[in-house]
Amino acid sequence: MKLENAELKNIERIVAISKAAFDSDIHVGASEADRPPDYDSIPWHIQMKNEGHLMQAVVAGEIVGGAILFADKDGETLYIGRIFIDPVHYRKGYGLTLMKLVETFYPGNKRIKLDTPLWNVRTNAFYTKLGYCEVKRDKELVYYQKELD
């Protein structure tokens, strides 16, 4: 897998994957209203691409997922806005591979922060498995952090 800056020509495919991935959350406890903002918006994804936050995950020339990443100005903290894998590629290790690539994408990065819905058993177990530690939670979200070597 390669993680690279998204290309404009691939936005429709990336948005279709985002939509399919987040729509699949209905199978792990989501209600119809529990989708991230703009998860299915082409203009929003174009904006994220133009600002340098949208990445595409590519395997053998096929886009299989994506990520929205925000690096702090200090260059030491990365916030993962979201990651997503096409559901047709679930259970192939692509999510794990994508997270490993995200963790090394920005040189000098010392920590990663992210949040995920409290109800999402699948993502909470996934981030814990990858060594992310819960730092707080509220009524809706669990906040995780991982210190990098």
From TrEMBL:
Cite the N-acetyltransferase domain residue spans from the record: 1-149
Q: From which domain of life does this come?
A: Bacteria
A single GO molecular-function term is:
acyltransferase activity, transferring groups other than amino-acyl groups
Give the protein's recorded name.
GNAT family N-acetyltransferase
